[in-house]
Amino acid sequence: MKRDLNDEMLDAESIYIYKAIKKCNSNIQIITELYYQSNIDFLMPNLKSNAHKHKYTTLYAAGEVYISSFIDTLTCQAYFNPNIVTILQQLLRENSEDEDEEVIRVTMANPDLV
Question: For 49-85, how does the pLDDT look when each residue is reduced to its tens digit (9 = 90+)?
Fold first, then answer.
């Protein structure tokens, strides 16, 4: 599939806003969605080489950048494996003891999940 260079401009507004906010406050954490993983190069300060994979960048590892296709993949996988939703809930929010017990109960009932 041939990509037009103009397609990669879909991330231009997100990159511009990210850079503007970081210039005002470099300590703030911003979560940015990009359509093309190659555009993460524009967010990286002092990038020495653009020959790296986006998954190994500090922004991706810190959760400040995600690629939009990741959400599509996650949604499809959640349809086939509903336990993915439970795992994400556990990761994204603080849990009460009741919820922790529920996770343990589900895990014990489905040992193939571990």
Answer: 554 576 677 788 777 888 888 888 888 888 898 888 8
Residues 103 and 52 in one domain: no
Do 55 and 86 lie in one domain? The reply is no
**Residues 61 and 88: beta-carbon distance below 8 Å:** no
Amino acid in position 13: E
43 pLDDT band, cuts 50/70/90, is confident
Task: Give Dmax (Cα) for the chain.
Answer: 51
* 60 sits in which H/E element: helix 58-61
| 43 three-state secondary structure | coil
Could you tell me the residue range of the domain that residue 43 belongs to?
5-69
Identify whether 74 is part of a domain. Answer: no
Q: Token pair of 108, please?
A: 């014990």
